[in-house]
Fold:
Amino acid sequence: MEDRFQGGSWFRHGAVVDESAVGRETFVGFRVVLRHATVGNGAQIAARAQILGSREQPVRIGDGAWIGVGARIAPGVRIGEHAIVGAGSEVHENVGAHTISYGRPAVARGTITTRFDEGDGIEGVLAIVRKRQKHDTTRLFPGGPSDPDGYFDCAATLGQGVAIGRAAIMIGRPDGPSPDGGITVGTRTALGDHLVAEGGGGLAIGADVTLGDAVTITTSTHEHRTPGRPWTAAPVYIATGVVVGDGATIVGPVRIGAGATIAPDAVVTRSVASGETSKGIFG
Structure:
């Protein structure tokens, strides 16, 4: 099957699309992998989700469905209209329409009763981005690294001795959906390779923090109980001396206390106390 895209959809940096069809006004986030899939209208697929269909067993994602950060969808799975798949979930069975499903493996956790007939899409955020680009075409923060595989569109404040790894993606500005958008990073902090840091809702990282490779941080969410599922800021604060393992995902709003450790591949959606070791919600 050849790739087919309808109008009004938004594909972010690093997305890989292979033999798939995508409907109108659909969002495909940073470094998403979309293989042998048919995606309906108004769907939203968050950063690093992997939709792994095959020619023999394609994946189908219904209109208005939402796939969370880093979720993995196995071959042959059907995701129903307006369903929600939680961050970091591994989906091996079909998800019914208007169903909330998450876990490793994902199971149904509830249903969505609010109707989403209008405004359930990306047009609101896209309107802000288009307006901003007319007045400010700055993409790199001052002193931002030169990296052809990276993407930098953020208001960033970096302390002395900050190290940014290869192929980083860092976004978030106060002229976006939230006036608190932006990223601050403390002194001597190391950000690993292939970072995805979405700071639209506000991201603050303290001094002497270590982020491993392929870490994902997102600072926004959507209110699924409200028609249109409006974009909502979900800030993340990571205190001094935190260590975040390779492949971990942090979904705001959360605070990670000083000296805490986040295990590799953890999915963190709740705050972590100082000095605590967290394996995330699936640990």
In short: Helices lie at 123-135. The chain has one helix and 36 strands.
